[in-house]
Amino acid sequence: MATAASRTTNPLILLLIVSVVGYVVAARRPARTWAQGFRAYLILGLVVIAIRTVFHIVFGGALGETVLVRLPELRLPQWAAGIRLGGAVSAEGLVSALYDGLRLATLLICVGAAVTLADPRRLLRTLPGALYELGLVVVVAISLAPQLVESALRVRRAQALRGANGRGLRAVRSIGMPVLAMALDRAVALAAAMDARGYGRAGDISARTRRFTAGLLLVGLLGLSLGGYAVLDASAGGSVGLPSLLVGVLAAVAGLAVGSRRVLRSRYHAEQVDPRSAVVAATGVVAAGCLCVTSVYDVTTAFPSTYPLVVPQLALLPVVGLLIALAPAGVAPSPLATSVETSAIPARRADVVGAGRS
Amino acid sequence: MIRFENVSIRYADAAGDALSGVSLTVPDGELCLVVGRTGSGKSTLLGAASGHVPHFTGGRLSGRVLVGGRDTRNHRPRELADVVGVVGQSPAGGFVTDSVEDELAFTMESLGIQRPVMRRRVEETLDLLGLAELRDRPLAQLSAGQQQRVAIGSALTAHPRVLVLDEPTSALDPGAAEDVLAALHRLVHDLGITVLLSEHRLERVVQYADSVISLGGSGQPPRYGVPGEVLAASDVAPPVVHLGRLAGWSPLPLSVRDARRRAGELRDRLGPRRVTDHRAGGDVVLRATGLTVRYRGGPPVLEDLDLTLVRGEVAALMGRNGAGKSTLLWTLQGALKPLRGSVRVGRDEPSALNPADRRTRVALVPQDPADLLYLDTVQAECRQADSESQRPAGITRILVDRLTPGVDDESDPRDLSEGQRLSLVLAIQLSARPAVLLLDEPTRGLDYMAKDRLGAALAELAGDGVAVLLATHDVEFVASVADRVLVLASGEIITDGATANVVLSSPTYAPQVAKVLAPDPWLTVADVAQALSGVA
User: Fold this and answer.
1) Domain range list for chain A
2) pLDDT for B33-50, tens place per residue?
3) Does B355 contact A163 at a Cβ distance shorter than 8 Å?
4) What is the structure's pLDDT at A156?
5) In this structure, are B355 and B495 located in the same domain?
6) How far, in Å, CA of B64 to CA of B162, rounded?
7) Is the domain of B151 the same as that of B292?
8) CA–CA separation, B166 and A327 (whole Å)
């Protein structure tokens, strides 16, 4: 879905993406503590649009003829030439800023949906052994955020017993101190517990091999992020993207293969993909594909012109593609239905794959 | 199995040794109980057996500790994980995954055990600890007792030869504590695991122990031996041992059953006793009517509940974990607004007042008193409390000294012992001169001496006319301080009456002395001692 969003600025399509994602989240949200955060991502999306628009109004270029308001313009010294404060605000510029903001917001909301629907601990199970320890650290860190909120609420409630009203600078200190102390204590306790349960036991391995593995992994990650960026960002072009992605994948796979040898841990759950999860993943890919095709062959629909202003159009292909992406709402097993518990485990993992790729 | 060779441990910046000159051997298959006052080094001793001390905590260890033949000096806790299983005080803090089955498998995954073996052991452990119905449940939804059993289970799946437990039942209601201890008992008998266990409430565990290590505090070497001998000379002992000492029984009884077989003679000496329901019909300070409380989307926690508190009484609120005790306290304080019903303190409705005025009517000491503290010295906290309560400077400090003498002005509240921290928070809350004092689980983590001091303080407060309501699982504490007991179950108060009447009629809530001397209504060793001195 995120890929789909990055390929268009058409507000109608973007809004459609948001509503599809929102519907799937609403239908298939698991009842876990950290799953309540989707609303926060929606709000974040709105904030992004607002910031993008305000920035445009303040710093924006003076493209376009339909001037809406003329703000007082600030003359900047010579060294800051090219940056303009205030001045004319045109409808064309404003609309394109809005589109851009909407695109960014949609990306964020898609990421939010992935985080909400997917259990990071399940994702962790699919990681290769060499990355397992790092992954566990990340997962523990992710689950820290809702715990912080929880302890902040608890402390605020307790502070009210001392007559504090829970506002102002004093409240920040009086709540912050115990919450931080609690978070530290909890981290230390968890680390001790993990240590006592054998986390991080290493097999025998020489220091040279370890350094070699680390180097391979570093190159792999660099290549992956470069390549991933190039593929996701349409403007960077495919000439750099694909080769670096390939190099990254190769280096990473080699590094992981070498690194995994030193890890002696085993796995309790076997993760396999069942037909349902394959469907879930496929719908995401189809939606992204439809949008990519549209962006290449139907430029006016994918990128509606803002100069001159036109009313954005909808085309059949992207709409169909996105409606297909609605399917997970029905196909993916409901987290509430316990009768399908056996298939629920692999399917929810597939949500991760689907949401991550789409 | 566990061997301490002349072990001394000193933490960085500490004036004295946390443990000194410990030389003892706990043989294979023994359940060994570690007793001692707060700060006597119980946790340090347990930590040393799992390698946690000094690898994780820092400090200097001299001598050596051998566990299953491995020296903890050159084996980190993770390299001992297949020999030693560790269970802490609050199981939730140590959970790495979020479902029961995954948690049970985590240690085995770390140890690299093959999958078929893992499957088998998870099933066995689920059955052994009675967790089979809970296997798919998220850990966060379990009760404290169930969580503690999962924590024990997750240590067991690695098939350790030693299990180290630091106060495993301190947060549990009497029923859940029984379940956990019964599970442990079974492990020792069926699987031959060596268990090293610390516990404040000895009355719960001492009858299961094969041996006892008694820590005397700084400087004194610990004593190790069979429970009867060690406890006879120890200042920390369960009521049944105190009763045995008082009656001059030898060897000392350790369980209610032992004591009961010899109690006939004592009952004769004491003569019959009649409890008078001396509940004063004094002024009502707090009156709650028709309280219904419900959290969003859930079933009601409290339903149509009526309650009155009388001036100068100490009432105890009991009931199993999750019965709604804390919710009731928060509602009475006014921080939580009931869905229906009202709470009146005098003419005021606490939930309608602002927080500062509310605490001059009803004060609450929450389950974790540390939540209220945020300054870096005891002195600063006291001054802050004086100004919050608009009382003359120094009043809070005087209150602290009355509750627990000897708390250093300059020390950090987080470094205080549980008992000292509770006293500080209690003093802060009392500085506002409330008419009603509510306490949520005040005896958690307190040793017998700190409990005695708290009991005396509560009695004194009641004497000054404050109405006290405490939610607790500690039956012995209730028997010694409370005038009245309320039992909460499924959102309603199902029993309300004088302590003796309620407690004697219930097998779960009866204190040890009552069980020994039944059917005569004696509650505490102090009562018996008083009666005996009257007879003689």
Assistant:
1) 1-119+271-358, 127-200, 203-268
2) 999 888 788 888 999 998
3) yes
4) 85
5) yes
6) 17
7) no
8) 51
What CATH number is given to the structural domain containing B78? 3.40.50.300
Instruction: Specify the residue for token string 């523990």.
Output: A140
Do B230 and B304 fall into the same domain?
no
Number of domains in chain B: 2
In order along its 358 residues, chain A shows pLDDT tens digits of: 555 555 555 666 677 777 777 767 666 555 544 445 667 777 777 888 888 777 777 765 555 555 666 666 655 565 555 555 556 666 777 777 777 778 777 777 777 777 666 666 666 666 666 666 677 777 777 667 767 878 888 888 888 888 876 666 777 778 888 888 888 888 888 888 888 888 777 655 566 776 777 777 777 778 777 777 766 665 555 566 677 777 777 777 777 776 666 555 666 765 555 566 667 667 767 776 776 666 666 666 656 655 555 566 666 666 776 677 666 666 655 544 333 333 333 333 333 333 333 3
**Of A230, A236, A14, whose CA–CA distance to A104 is shortest?**
A14
Query: Domain for residue B416, yes or no?
Result: yes
Q: Tell whether A153 is within 8 A of chain B (Cβ).
A: no
B354: its two tokens: 């602002």
Residue B194 domain flag: yes
Of B93, B354, B368, the CB nearest to A190: B93
Question: Which chain B residue shows the shortest CA-CA distance from A172?
Answer: B374
* Spans in chain B with pLDDT lower than 70: 217-219, 275-281, 297, 535-536
Answer yes or no: do B226 and B291 share one domain.
no
Judge residue B462's burial from the number of C-beta atoms within 10 Å of its C-beta, 0-12 exposed, 13-18 middle, 19 or more buried. Answer: buried
Q: Least CB-CB distance to A161: which of B50, B109, B364?
A: B364
Domain that holds residue B336: 284-524
Handedness of CA B64, B68, B70, B76 (dihedral sign): negative
DSSP state of A236: G
B86 and B150 assigned to the same domain: yes
Residue A14, SS3? helix
Residue A184's H or E segment, with its range, is helix A168-196
Q: Under an 8 A CB cutoff, do A268 and B122 touch?
A: yes
Q: Is B123 exposed, middle or buried (0-12, 13-18, 19+ CB in 10 A)?
A: middle
Looking at residue A16, its pLDDT comes to: 72
Residue B298 burial (CB count, 10 A)? 7
Q: Is some CB atom of chain A closer than 8 A to the CB atom of B82?
A: yes
Inside any domain, residue B43? yes
User: Contact B152/B145 with Cβ under 8 angstroms?
Assistant: no
Query: A146-157 burial, b for 16+ CB within 10 Å, e for fewer?
Result: eeeeebbebbbe
Torsion of CA B75, B81, B86, B90, to 10 degrees: 110
Largest CA distance in chain A: 71
